[in-house]
Task: structure prediction
Amino acid sequence: MHIAEGFLPPLHAAVWTAAAAPFVVHGVVMLTRQVKNDPESKLLLGASGAFCFALSALKIPSVTGSCSHPTGTGLGAILFKPPIMTVLATITLVFQALLLAHGGFTTLGANAFSMAIAGPWAGYMVYRLSRGAGLLPAVFLGAFVADLVTYCVTSLQLALAFPDPEGGFAGALAKFGGIFAVTQIPLAISEGLLTVLVVRLLRTSAAAELIRLGVTDKKKVAA
Amino acid sequence: MKRGTMINLLLVLAVAALAVIPLAIGAGDGKEEPFAGADAQAEPAILEHDPDYEPWFSPLYEPPSGEIESGLFALQAGIGMGVLGYCLGAVRTRRKLARAESGPDAG
Result:
């Protein structure tokens, strides 16, 4: 669930856009390089983008009695590193802002910062740190964190823009966190499980690609 | 059933259970609008903190009804899943062809 159109004050909207822009530009450069140097990875690039696109459209009920949707950004961040995922997730955000009145263009920078930048980077770092525990546990944790961090950042962005009249920034963070981040926990688990499912399928049918992308190595596949 | 297929099936079931449990335990009971979107809940919270805030920009295009909106969401999920399925099928076929080419002993 992204920040709705017009719901960030102009200054905040501008600052988040300026913060997100260099990441998106860098991502486009990396994506072009990836396609040029390794054209065979196009299928997995397509799969990563499509996974994010599909999961972002699924509004799922949560234990808080409200609905939210997963982000689908963990997969691409793990397979292609976060900058490339930044581009794929931004495309999804633009589609939703343009056709679905979900998110928006004035809040695109802030939403891209949470879902296309902070989520993928946090997920990728956790994936790398936990990689020693095995591929699938690391994939689960990476996808879980990418999903959850996205909505923690959304809560942070809203708390910065709209501090609580009494509780200030911390009070607002707790309130928006209760709306976005707590709702997201079961969904982040679902996203982790679905990402594990896709990586399991890729491990059997696209082992060569995974080795080339450095996600796994030969010995691990054979074992 | 092969063990791998079984695990994949269990993963799907777990995801389905996580979506169904909130409905089954009635997590939305007593809410004004049960299972509304989290973003819709954020808007009143924003106005509570800053009663004078007015959204300064409105969406360029807004689906005229809930039906059309859910249709567009379904389209988004459909395109995503279609492309994902195509890509997974294509890498699988590519691997099979590569194996067949390198002879039955290889791979």
About this structure: Chain A touches chain B through 75 residues (CB under 8 Å). The mean pLDDT of chain A is 95.
